[in-house]
Amino acid sequence: MSLTDTSARRAPAARLALPPWARFLLGRLGQAFLVMALVVIGNFVIMQMAPGDLVTVIAGGADMTQEQMADLRARFGLDLPLLVQFWNYVAQLLTFDLGYSYRMNAPVWEVLSARLPTTAALVVLSLLFSVTIGTVMGVVSARRAGTLTDMGINAVALVLYAAPSFVVAMLLVLVFSVKLGWFPIAGLTTVSAGYTGWALVKDMAAHLVMPVTALCTFYVAIYARLARSTMLEVMDQDYVRTARAKGLSETRVIYVHTLRNALLPIVTMAGLQVSTVLGGAVVVETVFGLPGMARTAYDAVFQRDTTMLLGVMFVSSLAIVIVNLAVDLLYTVLDPRVSLK
Amino acid sequence: MSPLKPNRRQILAGLAASVAIPALPPLARAQGSATLTVATGPVPVYLNAALSTGGGEAAVSGKMMDGLLTYGEGMSPEPQLAESWEVSEDGLTVTFKLRPGVMWHDGEPFTSEDVRFSVMEVLKVFHGRGRATFANVTEIETPDELTAVFKLTKPAPAMMSALNAQESPMLPAHVYVGTDIQQNPANLSPIGTGPYKFVSYAPGETLVMERNPDYWDEGKPLIDQLIFRYISDGSTRAAMLETGEADLVGSSQLPTIEILRFQSLDGFEVNGAGYEHTPSIHLCDFNLRRPQWQDKRVRQALNFAIDNKWVAENVWFGLASPGTGPLHVQQKAFYTTEGVPNYDIDLEKAEALLDEAGYPRGEDGWRFSMVIDAVQYGEEPPRAAEYMREQFREIGINAEARVNDFAAYVKRVYTDHDFDLTSYTASAGADPAIGVQRFYWSKNIKDGVPFSNGSGYASDEADALLEAAAIETDLEKRKQLYADFQAVAMEDVPVIQLVYDAKKTITSTNVKDYVQGALSFFGNFADVHKDA
Fold it and tell me: Which residue range is the domain that position A13 belongs to?
């Protein structure tokens, strides 16, 4: 990928022949490659710096002898020089093999592919709900700036902003599961029920309500504040006054002329949310016992399961690179002044 | 053949009956106990406790596999796969008569060859404690399919306390012979003779087991489906239990404060029975490699500075009893306080001992500095370390407390030996020879091996007593040997015992009969059932 990129730069003729979007994409691929390389090296080094290894953890719970531990290290390849271990891992990665987790006794990809959908659902749903709810709150608050409604919304946003997700998660469990019994607490499905089809979808939805809510609250506040301030700013612009002077309805002025322009910072924030929400997902997946990727990463750190952690980091940074690419493309759609250069 | 043609309804009814009746065991249906869900923490590496002594393995393996014996109250051996057994006078031959007609989950018969294979080729080789438990077993003879004769070089009384399913499960030879035992797929989809059959396992999420309809103990188990859900957060487990999403949490796998809450909550039961086989102690190892800890007066002084009763009441919230010596109070046959030096709190005596040992208070009021290294494994070890820090400061020792995650702790203590005093919890074993000896025996000072003799304590007197007790077949003589050992250990104090853990099972009150003698959470759950 990067080779094509550099050769394109070296030959001016070829570079000129490429349309701007292709050059943009190639540049992005080069960047992505660099990011992934840094992620892999960084994680490998950090995990090596942590005291103890996977065998220490396994042996710690299992009364092993020195010989048994040495056997395990040899079996896992942990007795090899660090550079060899690193090279083996990279070589594996280049063949799209994420390696084998000896802690989970399964190939990393097998575990992650089972857990990726849970985290993806959490991230996508929380993104969707927080952007929608937050923006609506912001718009309403901007239109009624200075009124009681505005102050009410601001107060709610402030509370949501200040409440850490683990506190929200615990409160949700306490109120909606323990006291009211509306939603199940842990996992993604009711294991013993063995639902299929629609019943399964409904069951999963019921399991996801609280985790998604816990993950949303903070971002709802951010979007509400962001939407409010940019809306207020845009509403003062000349073209908005022109639109009003043309005799357009207030709704049309707000939703077509103003909101579209106010959306740019929100889209930027949404791109950032995808990358930061994984941190929040660790907490939410832990509290709600969800079999997701974020918790897998967290557990892998304590288990010194380097291959598993690298696998999670690799897959999630790939996802973040893709999302950022999508955000950049979305800019060009929202604002014609932005072009792919 | 019959001239009367049955109509469609009769055929359907007949079909329904033939399908429905065998599918639901009558007892289970009567009690409405279809599914029992356990919320648990430690995720097993294998589902086979023959390969690992980890807590995750111990909790599930025995549900699917049987052992030769099980244990009643007071650790009295009771038949499981062995119907009867006989130990020869000299203790060098142990003969097991096996239960006839027992089938593996795949339909093959269970025989004495399975016993020989499991002990000689798996437990003796791969099991962390098995190597020691079966060290004296040189051969197992199989004169017929239902007789297994263990031949020993020296008597091994502790072995008779370690033959239950959780500690020494029996594996199917026909599945394992000729394979790479650690890589055998049956380790993650066990084929046993136990009350529950393996159905599915999503690593780190859910283990599903179902009733074994052909279990040799007829009519058991009483549960159709047994589910273990792996939930890493203790408070979440508590909430699941409270809402009925889970029925049972074992081995005190809840935050202590939650256990106290369930004790006073209607509809729930907190039960301490059934942990005799797995007693654990909260320990603090001195690092005898450092000069100031080599003087036993200094070690005694620190022990005098600690109020174990206060620790049991306030750090463990009363869910533990104060430690008095190396053996757990539940090791009833051998535990004693008679003739064992007593360390009730006495700060003056502690200061006097330190002065005497040549560590007077300096101008700044401190005698010397130290760090207490706690393992982050539950909340208590770090809290206990904080308590000790304050107590040691009282007697002029500038103490700090430091918390290490599990891997870092194991490396610091057992590989790097970079510590002064530790704070951790460990099993005392079903027998002192299995769980206690390892912390005191000089031959168990092993670099890099977790929970070996971490202090580096080496005493000829203690070694001799431990080695003699390990092979003494006469119970009275064995008691005396362990009594003498307890006195020596508390005179030398290489290790401080803060408290003896009192493990609890927490259930909703409709869950019954999960305690089977010396076992409960780690038992086989063959009797457990739920009242409607």
Answer: 3-107
